[in-house]
Amino acid sequence: MPRTKFVCGNWKMHKTVAEAVQLVKELAAGLGDVAGKVQVAVAPPFTAVHAAAQAAAGSAIEVAGQDVHWEAQGAFTGEVSAAMLAEAGCRHGIVGHSERRQLFGETDEAVRKKVGALLAAGLAPIVCVGETLAEREAGRTLEVVDRQVRQGLAGLDAGALGRVTVAYEPVWAIGTGKTATSAQAQEVHAAIRKILREMGGSVADAIRIQYGGSVKPENAQELMSQPDVDGALVGGASLKAKDFLAIVKGALR
Length: 253
Known about the structure:
Helices cover 42% and strands 15% of the residues.
């Protein structure tokens, strides 16, 4: 069976509650016959998660958290647990995003623990991996991605692994306007699927691997037409309904 494409908009530190609700309503109204054919999610800032989930109720749009703490509760000022995300209406949680790794020191071990917390709360992890420009230029892309996938998903059985989405996001392409070519993306996505197959056997054939990194309406269709590119994790272009809907619809062409 072909894998259903999965497109998720990561809004990062954008959108007030009112703006988030408005954007969700615009997206829900614009999906048309794409609803049900492409899995669609948005990841608002924590303050807007609940309102966005309520606005999305009854539509094909799902909600994701942008991060999570691995503990269920405790003295962790500023953090949010998986159970809190689930209660607020999330169905997914993003972990290991390059901005969390680069700016906030998130490690592969932290990613592994966060993946476990999301799964335990019934949420589906979107696990980001990807190399920096220096690592790519040094020919270390596959080495870096191999480490991030294996360590971030360590200890999961095939059933748990099957609930995970992997997002390949080359750090040098995030917010820079640069995008991996479709061939570059396919090469890394195929390598990731090979790793997943080594970890979980045939379940790897059902795992979605998204591409992220300056995904735009102009390049989304070509990227997602590659055999191992199963959707997109979209940053800036997810902040405007017209652009994000164009990307979602490009997943079917």
